[in-house]
Amino acid sequence: MPEGPSIVILKDLIKELHLGKPEVLEVTGHIKNFDKDRLLRQKVVDFKSWGKHFLICFNDFTIRIHFMLFGSYLINGRKKTPVKLGLIFKKDELNFYTCKVDLLEGNVEKHYTWENDVMADEWNSSAAIKKLKEKPDALVCDVLLDQQIFSGVGNIIKNEVLYLTRIHPLNKIGNLPPAKLRALVKEARNYSFDFLKWKKENTLSKHWEIYSQKICPLKHKTDKKELGKTHRQTYFCDKCQKIYK
Hints:
Elements: H1 4-15, E1 26-28, E2 46-50, E3 53-57, E4 61-66, E5 72-75, E6 85-88, E7 93-97, E8 100-105, H2 125-133, H3 140-143, H4 155-164, H5 178-201, E9 223-227, E10 232-236
Antiparallel strand pairs: 1-6, 2-3, 3-4, 4-8, 5-7, 6-7, 9-10
Keywords: DNA damage, DNA repair, DNA-binding, Endonuclease, Glycosidase, Hydrolase, Lyase, Multifunctional enzyme, Nuclease
GO molecular function: damaged DNA binding; DNA-(apurinic or apyrimidinic site) endonuclease activity; lyase activity; oxidized purine nucleobase lesion DNA N-glycosylase activity; zinc ion binding
Pfam families: H2TH
């Protein structure tokens, strides 16, 4: 599943085409939940990202694309795989595959709280800490994946942030010292931008300290378990990462 930084890369790639506000000349794909012809002859106002969502904004509605687990895209190219949504402009085309596509009515600002997005300029760390304190019994491995608190954080970022802050994934939020809570929020944003940099360099996996690793940087054997309510694969080191009580 693409994490927030990967969606930012997609947004930047499209904006590098210098499309401006292009008019949709042709729409392809298999959309069942809305009439795709509504996009015809409409001009794109902006391309945005919010967490794991890619947003194509028009005057009075927005197309939301969620890549789920196996989604992908091609810019000015096509796959043999059936396209879920294809947009053809005067000089360029965008094709999206194996993803979830929705139409959001009205201004996109009504649908999203941008301060939740760990990569947005509007990111609000104080608001994130406040929301965390409202979930004292929640496990830290779950709340890092809560898109209403850490929009854009996925499983790789979760694992790396917990190791870098030396916080065991089975900690309850209410048991974390204030300094650790602040470190968790700060590192979620910092690591997301590191992720973006390394992803662009194609060196991301070379920087993993705990994710998909059999030993941690301090040469301890790591554990791999499906933890929390999310049951997502979690890599951790019992010796490096502390449980607070």
